[in-house]
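subagent[fold] <- orchestrator: predict structure for attached chain, return tokens only, no commentary.
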Amino acid sequence: MLTVRVIPCLDVRAGRVVKGVKFQGLRDAGDPAECAARYEREGADEIVILDVSATTEDRATAHDTVDAVRRAIGIPITVGGGVRTPADAANLLDAGADRVSVNSAAVTNPALVSAIADRFGVQCCVVAIDAASRPDGSWEVVTQSGTHRTGIDAIKWARQCADRGSGEILLTSWDRDGTGSGYDLELIAAITAAIPIPVIASGGASGAAHMAQACAAGASAVLAASIFHDAVHTVSTIKHELAAAGLPMRLELTP
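subagent[fold] -> orchestrator:
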């Protein structure tokens, strides 16, 4: 059985880690390289860096941030924000990313997913899907850091991304982001049942119990930000609680 990955997320703006609720009201949460190094020491399996203002400000992710984090840690890094072309993806990989994540640009140009997967391999291509609930109980894709509702059905979009070569989906519930109310389990179950590739659950975790629920709903990995940035939990304590709950975990800590 594959181990469940616990992934701290660094939402970055202007070279600093930030955190908000439903992508709004961002507050400072520290230096990216320092945060990443601490999470690696605590046993993080991977780090996700998302430049939360790159798309809305029409620029690429700051490479200096990626380079600084890469020099600070040895675990895998996934980077997203402002990736519009395979050349943008190449630049991030050159800066030290192991995988690149695409979101808004892929919705606008779905062929971007295939282009990145074909050039760098499916293992390097992650599609981030930010999904918001609709009155009829379905979910639609939102872009531009949650400010634009596309009308695109999230499940259909996830299927299309898998068909185009995405190696994994980073699935964030816009409704739950930063709330601590738990992941959207129905959303996770619907997406994981619809596609054959792994799904990272994101948006709403307040502790290990929520993460265990996400895994039971089908997630292969769990991502969180606030609970780690605010030292509510450490990565190590979360992983040991998940292991005690019977989930397969990598528990070795980095010296």
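orchestrator: received. Logging for downstream: The longest helix spans residues 154-164. The chain has ten helices and twelve strands.
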